Amino acid sequence: LEGQLRHIQRIEAIGQLAGGIAHDFNNLLTPIFCYADMIKRGLPQETPQAQMAESILKTAHKAKGLTQKLLSFGRRQRLNMQPLDLNEAIQSFHDILRCTIRENIAIRMNLAPGTAPVMADRGQIEQMLLNLAVNAQDAIKGNGTITINTGHVLLDDEYARLHPGMQPGPHILLAFADNGHGMDDETLSHIFEPFFTTKQVGHGTGLGLATVFGTVKQHEGYVAVESRVGKGTTFTIYLPAKAQTVSASAPEPKGNGSHPE
Ligand code: ADP
């Protein structure tokens, strides 16, 4: 248990560090954008110098994309939290997933009816689905299946105590599964660390799951992963079903035996 806690703290520390660097780096990009743009405007369009200025702008844009990813798990990005019907969010993202993922990979969805809304940033939830989907695709050779399930679950105090970082209470869960190559324990123990990748140079940045981890943390949720080599991988994301408590306008439960720790 202590090991797990240390592990989470370590990922968070790396995330904070990377987020801090990204923040300062992002600020440094501003004059680069500004001056490259001024240089470009001051030159006739077809000159090689104007094209070089254009290259600077394009590269700076790429750098901005990267810092954006880093910021998202360094908790320095502002979130637009709204009550969100997770089923609806997943359903309306289906088309984008479908045209991103290879045709020989089926996408199945089993969305539990009547799930309570969660407080979430729709953009970040979509980004999370995309990251998980691209990883699933990379893990599948040839034909395969991605399965997205939702459900609701009440996490009790004891269960939460056994899973550091998990809060007890009603949760909506999102299980994202693939039948790809899976992971061994050694790989599993590093996947949420920024820049950890087993992919070839140019194919992975190692930021996808660190971002997922950061997103889930920012939503006060919990992410669990199960994987078997040669069988596949399932990421289960628990998001607190907060909105229900808000809209039900029920009085705060008292003396429910919760204890500090
Ligand atoms: P990247 O995809 O750029 O490598 P990620 O942080 O998204 O970075 O993933 C880190 C590593 O975790 C991957 O390189 C891969 O080894 C492993 N991984 C992630 N998702 C899966 C999956 N669905 N199946 C098997 N391995 C996975």
From TrEMBL:
Q: Any signal peptide, and if so, which residues? A: none
Which residue range or ranges hold the Histidine kinase domain? 20-243
What UniProt keywords are attached to this protein's entry? Kinase, Membrane, Phosphoprotein, Transferase, Transmembrane, Transmembrane helix
Keyword Nucleotidyltransferase assigned: no
The GO molecular function terms of this record are: phosphorelay sensor kinase activity
Q: Is Amino-acid biosynthesis there in the keyword field? A: no
Annotated coiled-coil positions are none
What is the protein's name according to its record?
histidine kinase
What organism is this sequence from?
A: Geobacter hydrogenophilus
Q: Which residues of the full protein are shown?
A: 618 to 878 of 1018
